């Protein structure tokens, strides 16, 4: 079947994201979209995106970075969507082709109707590019204090991981963490499936071992809660897809202090795995917030880290 190459942009300004409504007569007409369009012969994705945003919104893009790529088969044809994030532009974004244009808060994106291909794009638009995972061997007060400082520094996505805690202490810690994060960041909890089901966190983060056990049963959470998984290879990524996760961490990209004996994937292999996976990926392993641009160049949503994102130095 014919496969169309399309570029589209998640345009961010003042914490909001721009949506445009597709003209009624067009393919997927009447639905909301991220502005963009077909890549023409001889154009790079970047050139095509700049041209499309000029035509559709009358803006000159000045800062953009790749976010990820996804494919979808419509009955009429297949589309390969190359999604970029635009964080700076000149001019005022408006519907230059008469289309409706609105700015929405990422957390409200689930309320809009998009073409079927957009599922993972919406996930990407709702996620930030740093995913903090809490360190081992800290006590309850230290973990909570670290989370507080991280929130003040703008961290918006956190995974609570404390394998040295056991129920019911772990549950108490998780309840504290949910309280501290309320309204400021999304907290995903790692832990035993028995109690996570009704636990009031923004989501769950499943381990590779849990993936192997549970992926066949499908997605255990509704769409408005996050489901993420830890993946290290192609097989685990396939299981994550089967389970219906929203996003994954992929590790280790580099050698890490916590797992010095594990052979890292390296950027080239990580890049391939990310390109073949249809949902957002956070690269993990020996990385810090400074590596976000490199991660995005490799097609990742951003960086996940323990030490690299924790707000103070650990022993
Ligand atoms: N721009 C854009 N296209 C999308 C999105 N999601 C999605 O499935 N598509 C599909 O990608 C294809 C190409 O997009 P387009 O219609 O914007 O192409 P274009 O700007 O070059 O339009 P034209 O053919 O009228 O010149 C369409 O089939 C459209 O349905 C999205 O979020 N943004
Ligand atoms: Mg278009």
UniProtKB/TrEMBL annotation:
<feature type="binding site">
    <location>
        <begin position="33"/>
        <end position="36"/>
    </location>
    <ligand>
        <name>8-oxo-dGTP</name>
    </ligand>
</feature>
<keyword id="KW-0227">DNA damage</keyword>
<dbReference type="InterPro" id="IPR022998">
    <property type="entry name" value="ThiamineP_synth_TenI"/>
</dbReference>
<keyword id="KW-0460">Magnesium</keyword>
<dbReference type="InterPro" id="IPR036206">
    <property type="entry name" value="ThiamineP_synth_sf"/>
</dbReference>
<dbReference type="GO" id="GO:0006260">
    <property type="term" value="P:DNA replication"/>
</dbReference>
<feature type="domain" description="Nudix hydrolase">
    <location>
        <begin position="2"/>
        <end position="128"/>
    </location>
</feature>
<keyword id="KW-0479">Metal-binding</keyword>
<dbReference type="InterPro" id="IPR013785">
    <property type="entry name" value="Aldolase_TIM"/>
</dbReference>
<dbReference type="InterPro" id="IPR000086">
    <property type="entry name" value="NUDIX_hydrolase_dom"/>
</dbReference>
<feature type="binding site">
    <location>
        <position position="56"/>
    </location>
    <ligand>
        <name>Mg(2+)</name>
    </ligand>
</feature>
<dbReference type="Pfam" id="PF14815">
    <property type="entry name" value="NUDIX_4"/>
</dbReference>
<protein>
    <recommendedName>
        <fullName>8-oxo-dGTP diphosphatase</fullName>
        <ecNumber>3.6.1.55</ecNumber>
    </recommendedName>
</protein>
<dbReference type="GO" id="GO:0046872">
    <property type="term" value="F:metal ion binding"/>
</dbReference>
<dbReference type="GO" id="GO:0006281">
    <property type="term" value="P:DNA repair"/>
</dbReference>
<feature type="binding site">
    <location>
        <position position="22"/>
    </location>
    <ligand>
        <name>8-oxo-dGTP</name>
    </ligand>
</feature>
<feature type="binding site">
    <location>
        <position position="118"/>
    </location>
    <ligand>
        <name>8-oxo-dGTP</name>
    </ligand>
</feature>
<dbReference type="GO" id="GO:0009228">
    <property type="term" value="P:thiamine biosynthetic process"/>
</dbReference>
<dbReference type="InterPro" id="IPR047127">
    <property type="entry name" value="MutT-like"/>
</dbReference>
<dbReference type="InterPro" id="IPR015797">
    <property type="entry name" value="NUDIX_hydrolase-like_dom_sf"/>
</dbReference>
<dbReference type="InterPro" id="IPR029119">
    <property type="entry name" value="MutY_C"/>
</dbReference>
<dbReference type="Pfam" id="PF02581">
    <property type="entry name" value="TMP-TENI"/>
</dbReference>
<keyword id="KW-0515">Mutator protein</keyword>
<dbReference type="GO" id="GO:0044716">
    <property type="term" value="F:8-oxo-GDP phosphatase activity"/>
</dbReference>
<dbReference type="GO" id="GO:0035539">
    <property type="term" value="F:8-oxo-7,8-dihydrodeoxyguanosine triphosphate pyrophosphatase activity"/>
</dbReference>
<dbReference type="InterPro" id="IPR020476">
    <property type="entry name" value="Nudix_hydrolase"/>
</dbReference>
<dbReference type="GO" id="GO:0008413">
    <property type="term" value="F:8-oxo-7,8-dihydroguanosine triphosphate pyrophosphatase activity"/>
</dbReference>
<dbReference type="InterPro" id="IPR003561">
    <property type="entry name" value="Mutator_MutT"/>
</dbReference>
<keyword id="KW-0234">DNA repair</keyword>
<keyword id="KW-0235">DNA replication</keyword>
<dbReference type="GO" id="GO:0044715">
    <property type="term" value="F:8-oxo-dGDP phosphatase activity"/>
</dbReference>
<comment type="similarity">
    <text>Belongs to the Nudix hydrolase family.</text>
</comment>
<keyword id="KW-0378">Hydrolase</keyword>
<feature type="binding site">
    <location>
        <position position="27"/>
    </location>
    <ligand>
        <name>8-oxo-dGTP</name>
    </ligand>
</feature>
<feature type="binding site">
    <location>
        <position position="36"/>
    </location>
    <ligand>
        <name>Mg(2+)</name>
    </ligand>
</feature>
């Amino acid at each position: 079947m014919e496969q169309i190459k399309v570029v589209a942009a998640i345009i961010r300004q003042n914490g909001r994201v721009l949506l445009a409504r597709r003209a009624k007569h067009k393919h997927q007409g009447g639905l909301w979209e991220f502005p963009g369009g077909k890549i023409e012969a001889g154009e790079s994705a970047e050139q095509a995106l700049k041209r499309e945003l000029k035509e559709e919104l009358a803006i000159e893009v000045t800062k953009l970075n790749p976010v990820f790529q996804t494919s979808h088969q419509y009955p009429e044809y297949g589309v390969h969507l190359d999604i970029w994030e635009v964080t700076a532009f000149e001019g005022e974004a408006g519907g230059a082709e008469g289309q409706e244009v609105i700015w929405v808060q990422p957390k409200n994106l689930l309320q809009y109707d998009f073409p079927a291909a957009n599922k993972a794009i919406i996930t990407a638009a709702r996620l930030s590019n740093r995913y903090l995972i809490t360190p081992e061997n800290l006590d309850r007060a230290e973990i909570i204090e670290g989370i507080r400082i991280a929130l003040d520094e703008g961290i918006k996505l956190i995974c609570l991981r404390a394998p040295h805690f056991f129920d019911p202490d772990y549950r108490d810690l998780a309840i504290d963490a949910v309280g501290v994060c309320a309204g400021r960041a999304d907290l995903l909890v790692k832990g035993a499936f028995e109690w996570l089901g009704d636990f009031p966190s923004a989501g769950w983060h499943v381990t590779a071992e849990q993936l192997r056990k549970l992926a066949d049963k499908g997605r255990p959470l509704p769409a408005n809660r996050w489901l993420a998984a830890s993946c290290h290879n192609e097989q685990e990524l396939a299981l994550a897809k089967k389970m219906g996760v929203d996003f994954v961490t992929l590790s280790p990209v580099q050698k890490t202090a916590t797992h010095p004996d594990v052979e890292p994937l390296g950027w080239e292999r990580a890049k391939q795995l990310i390109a073949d996976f249809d949902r957002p990926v956070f690269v993990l392993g020996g990385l810090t917030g400074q590596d976000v641009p490199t991660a995005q160049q490799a097609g990742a949503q951003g960086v996940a880290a323990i030490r690299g994102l924790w707000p103070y130095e650990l022993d």
